C-alpha cells in the first residue's frame, strides 16, 4: 500500500488537538448564519487567505477572533462532532481533545454551555463511530492565575467529563510557575496534568525543567527541544513521560517541522507522539501529519507503527482500556 493509505489506516490515538482549532471555514459560515453574525470575509477562500502565519502570535491573532461564531451548546457539539468524524476517517480510535473555556467565558458564553455541547459529541462518537473521546480543559496562560483558578472551580463540577487540564496560548512572559498553585489544586481534585512547552520561545528549556521538576506533569505538549539537555531526556524516559508533537503545526509557527528533534526522541525510546494541533488552520489532520513527517524524515513503516503504539502508551486511557489497543 502507499504511504497515505498506510498512515491513515494505522489505528491511533490523537492526544494534542484543540477543538477550537478544528473550525473549518465552511462550518464557520454555517454557524455565523445560524447565529446572525456578520463576518468580514465573504468566501472560504477569503478566510483561508488570512492563514499566513509566521509564528504562534500571528496564528493566535486569527484563532481567537474566529471563535465568536461559537455561541450555543449546539455550536460546540457541531464543532467537535465534525472533528471526530474527520479524525475517525484518518484512523483515530481514541482522542483526548483540548478545549479553551476561557476563550468563551471571557466573551460571555457560559462554561456550562461549552461543556454541554462538547460532551454530547463525546458520547455520540462512542456510540456512532466507536471512537472513545475525552476532554482536556486548557487554561489560557495569558490570562491571570486567579481566572484560571475560577475556571478550575467550574470544571470541578464536571469532573467525570474532564480527564485532565492543560495550559496553552502564548508562552512568552507566562512561564509554568505562574500556574503552579492552580495545577497543584487540579492534581488534588484528581485531574491529570499536561502543559504546552512551545518550541523556540524564550526560556523554553527552563520551562521544560520546571514542568518536570516543580509541576510534575503527566505529559508535555510539544517540548521536543528537551533534546538540548540529555539529562532531562533521561529523566523523561525513566518516567515514561509522553510528548505530543505536531509536525505540520511546527512548520507554521517555527518554519520547520522539528523532525530532527522528534526522530531523536523516537530513536531514544521516549514516548513521542504525532498529532495535528489546529488542523483546520494548518491544513493537516493527524494522518496527514504522519505522512508529512515520514516524507521529511524518511521514516520506515515500522517507525510509523511505533509512533502509533506510543500514542496509546502516552494516552490517559486506563490500563484495562489501553490493553485493547496495544
Ligand atoms: N492554542 C491553540 N493552539 C495552540 C498552539 N499551537 N500553541 C499554543 N496555544 C494554542
Ligand atoms: Zn497545541
UniProtKB/TrEMBL annotation:
Protein name stated in the entry: Adenine deaminase
Stated family: Belongs to the metallo-dependent hydrolases superfamily. Adenosine and AMP deaminases family. Adenine deaminase type 2 subfamily.
Keywords: Hydrolase, Metal-binding, Nucleotide metabolism, Zinc
Catalysed conversion reaction: adenine + H2O + H(+) = hypoxanthine + NH4(+)
Any single Pfam family the record assigns to this protein: A_deaminase
Residues under site feature: Important for catalytic activity: 222
Statement: the UniProt record of this protein carries the keyword Metal-binding: yes
GO cellular component, one term: cytosol
Domain Adenosine deaminase: 11-326
Any one GO molecular function term: zinc ion binding
Annotated positions binding substrate: 278
Cofactor note: Binds 1 zinc ion per subunit.
